[in-house]
Amino acid sequence: MLSLTAKKSNPDRILVYNDSEIKIRITFDKVIKSIKLQGDTYFDDNEKLDIMYRMFVVDYKQYKHSPVDIYNIVTLIYKELDGDEEAESEEIFNFFEDADRIIASFLMAYEIDLEEQIGIMSWGRFMTLFNNLPEETPIMQAIMYRTCKVPSGKENADERKRILKLKKHYELSSQRKKREQADLERMMKAFI
Fold first, then answer.
1. Running along the chain, 192 residues long, what does each successive block of 10 average in pLDDT?
2. How distant, in Å, are the alpha carbons of 56, 63, 98, 162, 189 from that of 142?
3. Which residues touch 181 (CB under 8 Å, ≥6 apart)?
4. Any residues with CB less than 8 A from the CB of 45 and at least 6 apart, and which?
5. Nearest to residue 15, comparing CAs of 88, 65, 51?
6. Which residues contact 161 (CB under 8 A, 6 or more apart)?
7. With contact defined as beta carbons under 8 Å apart, do 43 and 37 qualify?
8. Which one in 75, 125, 167, 178 has a CA-CA gap of 20 to 30 Å to 60?
């Protein structure tokens, strides 16, 4: 969470673990990389933990942490990231599929080039700005069409067609898979 009394959002934090202070750096790009790493199938879980530890812990070489320590420290870092936020039940955006829209939205709304903010902007500041993007920005338009209701009734036929076309245009790969599965199930029921 950002503060109205702090000069700026600082990505550097101190994590206390076993009575010692560990300096961590939580920038938006590192968090997004760690999200991608979690879904990676090339690395095993221990390798992923080690990579995340090295990614977030500043001067990690100075510490002599065991694999159990690394697990605990990464767990504490993720607790710090989660805060009070609740997970979305359905994916309405994706940092990787929507990267162009997010970059364009930050430029449009705040005149911030996210590529220039890599390694600088904290995750908290990024999410505060992201969650408050105006509705006319590209990512918010995509989210609006992904989540809007499709009107029913004959009088709304043209609007329904327009919205369905936009929903299909903006859908994420996870949404496309669900739609294609539902279409296949409807076809199967029609033939049974």
1. 59 92 95 93 95 96 94 92 57 94 98 96 94 97 94 89 93 84 78 74
2. 31, 44, 9, 14, 32
3. none
4. none
5. 65
6. none
7. yes
8. 125
